[in-house]
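If you are new to this repository, start here. Below is one unmodified record pulled from the training split, so you can see the exact layout before writing a loader.
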Amino acid sequence: MIIVVNYLLAFQPEMDPFRLDQPEALPRADFKPNPIDKLVIKSIREKFGIHRSSLTVCMQLTPTQCVLYMSDLQILTGLSIFISGFVQMPCGISRYHWKILAYLAWFSSLTHFGCLSFLRSYLFNHPAERTWRLFFMIIIAVMLVFALVPTGLAKESYGPSYHSIDYYGDAIICAFQQATSTYRNSMPFDNMVLSITFLAVGLLVRLFKLSQGLSVFITARIRKPCSKRAVRLLARVRTWSKIDESPTGMKRLLVYRPLLAGFLIVRVVVDLYSSMLGEVLWIMFSFVWGLIQLIQTRNSAPGGDNDWSFGQVVPVVLIGAPLLTIYEFFYAGILPGRLLTWINADQDR
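And here is the target side for that same chain:
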């Protein structure tokens, strides 16, 4: 939610994510704002009348330490969930509780990924922190993949829906014994593959985007040369199609237009990959996907597991911990002074 609000109110696509945090630092000469981010942000802010208000300034001045705290909290949360789950695996933890565990860790990993997107510029200026945070991101992602794999391993004898008590009551460690006889057209197997795909895409995108070398290499050595060659090819096809002489000719309809449409689609996909909007959409889709999996699993639980008790109340109450941290950063005297400085400077202009 914070990342979405920050994107709509405070994100500035004109700022280089790999800018040095130094007063005398110069921007990169080859940096260009993402066209999708510019178009979307301009359209949304103009339509809803979002201007440079005090709330916008607060979002821009949100202390990085607040997001760092949330990121560290998710690392500890994810590791604690996985360690407790792996310790219980030989003791016969059920498929039901294992899947709940896996998708709780899914949300923890998702939040950590979102924090890394928010901290892209900060981590560029602090390479040591970037290194160990990426290390834990990879460790948690690998552990999550290992946790998701057994959720898709099941024999056909459980039935087509795999929502029976026999299926969820079975020990998760038995899933590895059923790996060779797994029914690959089942819903659990498809869900497992889609979940791992979502996770792998998010991990690779963040590894590329958090590394200036990889980002520059992809842009300068892959995207730009391929784009120039495609433009030259389209120019040759346009000349060969004789569009100026025959605007409605078959060459234009069957050759030039499909090639042009394919080029534009690929370009939009690449721009979406490199945009902040793409990361926001990935986070939203992944959140909805994880929520669907969690709800489906909870609906298959016996009645007693849905009763509110100590185990349900405490986690809900602890949700307020990050919210209290955000409140402290906004209203405990850190931001008001910086906000007042900005307002005075704006009035002087």
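Two things worth knowing about this chain: The two ends are 34 Å apart (CA to CA). DSSP finds 16 helices and no strands in the chain.
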